[in-house]
Records
---
Amino acid sequence: MKRICTIVLFVIIGLQLHAQQRPQYTQYVFNPILVNPAVAGIENYTDVKAGYRSQWTGLQGAPVTSFFTINAPLGSNFLEGDATQAPSNGENPLGRSFTQTYMAAEPHHGIGLTVVTDKAGPIRQTNFDATYAYHIGLSPTLNLAVGVSAGVSNYTLNTAEVTTEFSDPAINGGNYNQFKPDVGAGLWAYSSTYFIGASVQQLLPQTISFSSNSQYNQGKTVPHFFLTAGVKLFLNDDITLLPSVMVKEVNPVPTSYDINLKMAFRDHFWIGAAYRQQDAVAALVGFNIGSFLSFGYSYDYTTSNLNTVSNGTHEIVLGIYLNNRYKVTCPQHTF
């Protein structure tokens, strides 16, 4: 029988409501719309991704995250004007010749949708957000995108997974299924060889409580700030290194960072490694299967004290390229 006493429940709620409240991702750099709405419509096809992340496997009640994202550009000027950025003659889209002839994308709009479900213990959070972005050229080779996201967050407490010895006022008589507004915003500057992004999630702080007793209405959502950057380095015409970093600021938790390194072999295969500050190191691998499918897998080895009870973290991401009229076999603008 699952038994979670009051103090443990408050630890879980505290971790969710006063620390990092949004899920973390090892493969964030391959689907940045999860943290930055300005990425919507950045490619000249409809980008669909679905993912599953099982964190700290072996630990009962550990976070499990699943997500679905879709985004696409709007405007025929962009689709027609950007055709030269998607070579279909066998030229490597990550190679030197592509970057030498790269032109900033035409001004255009982008739209998208993200659905993320994160379950930790008896608490489940699901976010439904529509995204919009506008992309403009700052120079012949540099674009800037400005994006916003808006939707709702659903918080649920499964009381069937909570067993206490006595009636607990912290979870009695409350609303176990709540909807709260959710708003985010972001900027994303990108060229053929680098990108820089800044974004914020949960702009509207909300009170989250599962009790009718106001004494226990202490749970608060807080804004999450992200700063991301990456650069493309050539080893030769066919092999590129793509180092990137993400810095996260979630008050009152200390600032943290993730470092990611991807080595891409033309536009077909990549391997990588990642480090998350005081938490984990990870190995990554991925394939681009023709101009329709992509697959990524990562395994995190826990380096914190949780490694005594955790068997690591697994994350799988499947991508589909729809309306890919120029037969692009890998992302052109998000690396």
---
Amino acid sequence: MSEVIKKETILSGMQPTGSLHVGNLEGALRNWVNLQEKYWMYCCIVDLHALTADYKDTKGMKDKVFQMAVDFLSAGLDPEKCAIFIQSEVPEHTELHLLFSMLITVPTLTRMPTYQDKKETLDSYGFLGYPVLQAADICLYNADKVPVGKDQEKHIWLAKDLAQRFNTIYKKTFKEPEALFTTIPLILGSDNRKMSKSYDNHIPLEFTEKQTEKRLRSFYTDPKKQRQGDPGTPEGCPIFLLHKVYTENPEQEIAPECRTGALGCVDCKMKLNANLNNALQPIRDKRVELLKNQDFVWDVLATGRDRARQRAGNMMDKVRKAMKISYRKK
């Protein structure tokens, strides 16, 4: 009789924005690929969350979901090791969201950092309730941990708080999820802000080598370093930050010559270009392969949906019984 492997469960999610970029790769995907070896993983493409901002323009959502799935697989997520699925195809997410919304106060939600940051431009109930849906995403799979950056700490606190409230009011049903913080490299875009598609300062994974080189040439560098020979300051330079991810021993190979002025910014960018393109080539090759076999990608999402629905359905059975709203015998 084979031994049952006991693993904790992780829930990860990302809003579908189409093809991903280097910031997404290093900020989340690399970590997820490593975590799938140690945990039972559910990787959710959270299209319902995306509607908080894009509810007026949904015509491109299907392609955005597909492109994200392609990049998930290209980066190394293995559908044999983790369930990759679309949030809206598991209706239990919205059911638990509704039930959780009864347990939270409006003032608590208005104090959430994401609401405070964007309340002037996004004022729908969907946006206000975004953290409650996120809590439902997590608790629906009885996740032990959620891999996030420190900026999401408050949202994991809310999920834990809602699990505690439910357990106290009804019956102990949910685990209380914990944030799984990991060291995420700082990735800045061409304008020295956080790399983001919305800023158009990003390097998409789908870029060719020539497109990557062109984008790197446009990157901000030290304004005091006008020409080769001028001393530079690598700390805080977005090119050097990328060197720290893609270049071996950048503190010895890049930083000293930058500081003395021996290494000009163009040459520095071209060194990075070679290393970055070399690192991305396996992902790009996999993308090409997957784009030729789109049915396989949709099949992965269907299989992930079925696995997610099985766990989510079992969890909702427990929720309804705990709340005494399970009315019919099966």
---
Amino acid sequence: MPHIEKKESGEDFLKSLGFPTITVHDTFTHFDFLSPGRRVLLIGPMGSGKTEFAARVWRDAAIAQKKSERVRAMTSTGMLDRRKVFFIRSEIDSSRFQDYPDDALCYRGGYVRCGENIAKIRDSFGLEEVLKDNPEVGTYIIDEASFFDERLAYVVRNYSMEKGCMFIFPTLILNFRKDIFNSTARLMLDIATDVIPLTAYCEHPDCMDSAFYTYRYYQVEGKECPALYFDPLIVVGGDKIKDGSLEPNYASRCDRHHFLPAKEYTFFTLKPLGEEAGKGNAEPLYKEIRALNEDKEHSELYRNLMLRYGSDPDGEIYTNAIIPNHIAEKALCYLFSEQNMIGETLLLKMAKDLELDTAYMSKTLSDNRHPVSFEQGSLL
């Protein structure tokens, strides 16, 4: 079982100084580079300070490296030294940080320069190359590890156990659906030795509760449009608010203000239609996808949203979810890439017959590790 990090309080120390009985919170300490083989998960919603915490580890390491040879012996296993830190980011995440230097470890409100100790990789094989090329590095910070293939968890576990190396993972464990992000995230929980949970304020303007969830929404013509449950699992976004249907925005939200429409529709309508299509009867799925593409208000999705949320105090926000474009494309991509309910032949045929945006579908499927070759289309 991983250790949930909770430092001993400084209550006894403060009492020795003469403080009265007061609420004493956990001590905010420098990072521990002494213990070998740790695999530390930094978990929390977007905006909770995961990457900023990683930057703090980087700064602590710079201070620790000024210590004596005696300290070096305490922080080293063989030739690697855990005070030497290397930062790794996913290649697909590059678009988030175009305004920063190439060697920057970026977080909200700032960044630190990593020099040569930074790399962008695509998968676990890329990680193995970085490990091979940097045998003296003792601590690796792997940003958003859930974006990588599940093999990465085993590469990390084996290397940390064999070499005494420490790995730190500022990562989302829950996706925008409030589910475990993916199989990689589940394996990261299995191999973790330490967990450091972080929270943020709920970013709803009327709320000050702690946020545990990452909320995805689109902003279309000034309206907040929550992502539907079957929105693509991976859609890379940054910290700047974006308008339109192509790129979502993200916010930290509490349970009350995390709006997630169409979950019932997905399980009661969309998936059964996909299952039926997979058995050879594709006409009902054609009818629903055609409605989502051409006449949303006559779709089963619209009917479900109105019945489910029509009288809800936040009903308008929930029903705004149908405003963005590409809902038909997202529904098909979900059935194909996540549920494996329809095959590639049917996917291509429906995209062509219904004149869907194949450029959007191609990029979405590629980002979610299910690339498909479509005829060239144009974004709506």
